[in-house]
Design goal:
Largest sheet: none
Shape: globular
Helix content: over 70%
Number of strands: 0
Distance between the termini: 50 Å
Strand content: under 5%
CATH topology: Growth Hormone, Chain: A
Order of helices and strands: HHHHHHHHHHHHHHHHHHH
CATH architecture: Up-down Bundle
């Protein structure tokens, strides 16, 4: 089939969902892999806690900084072309990390990875708007997000097992190769969907971003989504592993298993958030309300984590991962609110704020931990309480704002 042809409905899943799901699998693998590899990298290249936080979180700042131009590119040139080309940038970044011999090279490589995978969620969300009906969006988006959860699972116990046959450099080199292959598959397999952006000027497209940020519905949904998803990505992608080691007192293999449990529950949450949201809407409960309940539950679980409450690490981790996915329903909420031709810019406008928050939280946690002395290689419990607890204050305020605006 030629790239410009629209596929028959029966093969949409194969030609649209699966290739984009593969891209988001890799994106989440990159996002989470340093939770396992961070200690290996720090031992190979001397790094402090703040260096580890910066090296990992620069992915978020690079990812977020590219979101607004990404939205314009997606609406103008289509998700297939944009994601395929950007994945080549990610492959170059992974190769740079694999060859790094200092902090600067690590940071540069992770920044390239961040830019390169910046379209791996936004492109399929745009494609879903093009190829599926509006009432199907929560479910289709959930399938893509579920693939990311599987990528997070792959970044835990499987990566830990891979270290028995290679080192962290080998893992990143393999990721570089897989990313280049995925870029080729997206370019040749995924069809182009209808787009109306090509007939409008760049200035008009940029002005549309201003209208999105000025929208009252965006103001209602964005603060809680940013606080919840930013916190989840920051902790799950790096600090959950050290917390399991220091506070839950798990051995490395146990910690990798617990992280896999979190990631598997997150994948399930991504899949079910959309399906449950659609079912509850049919029964009269809005997607906005069900998403808010999920984000409130995640806040409660995060407060328990910050307080060091670990009666059952695997069960608590599973609940934390499941409800951490609740905030992703906001993408479907907002894309429904706007015209489909703005889908790329709507999603990337929200994603910009989410990833800026994830960067600040992930780096900030490392900065706070770095102010405490380690005891036998472990940060004390009070360090974790302060580091994980501080970002939850604006989270709680955002929840109150969400409830007030919902009423």
């Amino acid at each position: 089939m030629n790239p410009g042809e629209r596929p028959a409905p029966a093969i949409l899943g194969l030609q649209v969902l699966l290739p984009f799901a593969g891209g988001y699998f890799l994106s989440y693998l990159y996002r989470s892999v340093n939770a396992v590899l961070g200690g290996e990298i720090a031992a190979s290249i001397t790094l402090e806690a703040a260096d580890i936080g910066l090296m990992t979180s620069v992915y978020f700042i690079a990812f977020g900084a590219f979101q607004l131009p990404l939205g314009v590119l997606l609406d103008r040139f289509g998700p297939r072309r944009v994601e395929a080309l950007l994945l080549l940038v990610a492959a170059a970044g992974a190769f740079c990390v694999a060859r790094a011999d200092g902090v600067a090279a690590l940071v540069a490589g992770r920044a390239l990875v961040g830019v390169g995978v910046s379209s791996c969620l936004m492109a399929p969300l745009k494609a879903n708007v093009q190829f599926f009906s509006r009432h199907q969006l929560p479910l289709m988006n959930g399938i893509i997000l579920g693939a990311g959860g599987i990528g997070a699972v792959a970044a835990t116990a499987p990566v830990h097992a891979a270290l028995a046959v290679t080192d962290w450099r080998g893992v990143y080199a393999c990721l570089a190769g897989l990313t280049a292959v995925m870029a080729g598959l997206l370019w040749w397999i995924v069809p182009d969907g209808p787009t109306a952006a090509g007939g409008t000027s760049m200035a008009d497209q940029l002005r549309a971003i201003g209208r999105i940020f000025a929208d009252g519905g965006f103001h209602r949904v964005a603060p809680l989504t940013v606080a919840s998803l930013g916190y989840f990505m920051a902790v799950q992608g790096l600090w959950a592993g050290p917390w399991l080691r220091d506070v839950a007192a798990l051995a490395p293999s146990q910690s990798a298993g617990a992280l896999a449990t979190v990631a598997a529950a997150m994948a399930l949450g991504y899949l079910l958030t959309g399906a449950i949201g659609v079912r509850l809407e049919r029964r009269g409960l809005s997607l906005t309300t069900s998403a808010g309940i999920g984000m409130a539950a995640f806040l409660a679980l995060s407060l328990a984590m910050a307080g060091g409450w670990v009666p059952a690490p695997y069960l608590c981790g599973a609940l934390w991962g499941f409800f951490g996915a609740a905030s992703t329903a906001s993408y479907a909420i907002l894309t429904r609110r706007f015209d489909g031709t703005l889908a790329g810019r709507v999603n990337t406008s929200l994603n910009l704020l989410v990833f800026l928050a994830a960067f600040a939280i992930q780096w900030g946690i490392g900065a706070v931990l770095g102010r405490f002395d380690r005891i036998d290689g472990h940060w004390p419990a009070e360090a974790w309480t302060l580091a994980l607890g501080l970002p939850l204050l604006p989270y709680a305020l955002a929840l109150l704002w969400y409830i007030r605006r919902q009423r």
